Amino acid sequence: MADRLPKKVYEAELRRLQAQLVDMQAWVQATGARIVVIFEGRDAAGKGSTIKRVAEYLNPRVARIVALPAPTERERSQWYFQRYVAHLPAAGEIVLMDRSWYNRAGVERVMGYCTNEEYHRFLHQAPIFERMLVEDGILLLKYWFSVSDVEQEKRFRSRNEDPMRRWKLSPNDVLSITKWEDYSRAKDTMFVHTDIPEARWHEVDNEDKRRGRINMIHHLLGQIPYEMVERPEIEIPPRPPSGGYDRPPQQLDGYVPDYAATLIDK
User: Fold this and answer.
1) What kind and span of H or E run contains 52?
2) Which residues form a coiled coil (predicted)?
3) Taking a C-beta distance cutoff of 8 angstroms, is the pair 145, 50 a contact?
């Protein structure tokens, strides 16, 4: 990875790409396209912050972020892919998956949360499941965010020292430092079995988050065959003259206190 992308360059290009994402969203709505974007990678690899930039200016009714918690006892008894099916997009929707069914090939495998039989069944079924999605017309894009062991530890320590971001750390996250090679082997095996022509893995070098976000969003836009959609201009009508409405007396005790005014003198 080259030197960190200058902030001014990053912000200008990010805004340009985000405008294109809005154009792509209009195409999705107009054509009824269905898009699933999977964000996978090591803990602290920068998946969440990239998703945030992708979704920042999109309509949340069109672009949904899916970040599922640990499965319930009932969900554990279901077909593994079953709970993910409920979150797949309908026509005109985009689903951004902050982790996905690939939990089984990563954290579940490394941490021993699934059996060998369940793991190997997943490696067999995942390509079949994804081919079914693609054959049904879903645009499926899979991104793996890569980061070095040094940078991962640096980000962990930064989170631990920041009370605003400490919630991002979990015991499993910290354990991933001691299981770096195990996660590497699991990722390599996952790629061998699930990097299929219908749904390829795209690896993002995210050592520099600015570069990684720009590269990922630019690549995403290049994978979707969207076209510019003519959007009707909206005219804001003039406000009509008053019809004699009298506002009732204000109940000041019901207003939120003007705390902001206290900041001016500070």
Assistant:
1) helix 47-55
2) none
3) yes
Report whether pLDDT(173) > 90.
Answer: no
By the 8 A CB rule, do 225 and 22 touch? Answer: no
CA distances from 160 to 154, 168, 258 (A): 10, 9, 34
Q: How many whole angstroms separate alpha carbon 99 and alpha carbon 68?
A: 8
Q: Which residue has 């699933």 as its token pair? A: 36
| Tokens linked to 25 | 């969203």
β-pairing verdict for 63-66 and 93-98: parallel
Q: Are 73 and 174 a contacting pair, CB within 8 Å?
A: no
3-state secondary structure of 247: coil
Q: What is the DSSP letter of 155?
A: H
pLDDT digits (tens, 9 = 90+) for 46-105: 999 999 999 999 999 999 999 999 999 999 999 999 999 999 999 999 999 999 999 999
- Compute the distance between CA of residue 160 and CA of residue 158 in angstroms, rounded to an integer: 5
CB-count burial class (<10 Å; 0-12, 13-18, 19+) for 48: middle
CB within 8 Å of 152: residues ≥ 6 apart: 42, 43, 44, 45, 176, 177
Residues contacting residue 59 through CB under 8 Å, at least 6 positions apart: 25
CB atoms inside a 10 Å sphere around CB 109? 24
CA distance 126 to 207: 28
CB of 198 closer than 8 Å to CB of 130: yes
Angle between helices 116-135 and 180-194 (to 10 degrees): 40
**200 contact partners, CB below 8 Å, separation of at least 6:** 142
SS3 content of the chain, % helix, strand, coil (to 5): 50, 10, 40
